[in-house]
Amino acid sequence: MGIDPNFEENREREGREHGVDVWGPTDPPETLGIRGTHVAVDFDICLADGACLEDCPVDVFEWVDSPGHPESEIKANPTNEVQCIDCMLCVDVCPVDAIDVDPGRENRL
Ligand code: SF4
């Protein structure tokens, strides 16, 4: 199952890390939650495939370390989500549907 596209209704914002919002629940290192709001990555699904980093035309994603996480020891963090141009390439290439992009989400919060 991929990222919940309605996570902002179903989860609580717990704070910020690596420059983006953190949506819980979190229980590190095994459970890291969803990261980002306009460009959101479910860190508990991300397996560090890297296609989003390679394909994003405006370099939204950066690797961050996630030692001890069961899926992968690095994650694609949407550090530069303010640069997103909503091309949806990352959503299309992610093999595990860990990414959701919604330019209107911040306005609904
Ligand atoms: S939608 Fe396009 S511009 Fe936005 S993060 Fe994904 S690949 Fe980058």
UniProtKB/TrEMBL annotation:
Basic and acidic residues composition-biased segments: 8-20
GO molecular function: 3 iron, 4 sulfur cluster binding; 4 iron, 4 sulfur cluster binding; electron transfer activity; oxidoreductase activity; zinc ion binding
Chain positions recorded as [3Fe-4S] cluster binding sites: 46, 52, 94
Cofactor note: Binds 1 [4Fe-4S] cluster.
Keyword check for Iron-sulfur: yes
Chain residue ranges for the region called Disordered: 1-27
Function statement: Ferredoxins are iron-sulfur proteins that transfer electrons in a wide variety of metabolic reactions.
Positions contributing to [4Fe-4S] cluster binding: 56, 84, 87, 90
Span of domain 4Fe-4S ferredoxin-type: 37-66, 72-104
Protein name: Zinc-containing ferredoxin
Organism field: Natronomonas salsuginis
SUPFAM superfamilies reported for this sequence: 4Fe-4S ferredoxins
Keywords: 3Fe-4S, 4Fe-4S, Electron transport, Iron, Iron-sulfur, Metal-binding, Transport, Zinc
Cofactor(s) for this UniProt protein: [4Fe-4S] cluster; Zn(2+); [3Fe-4S] cluster
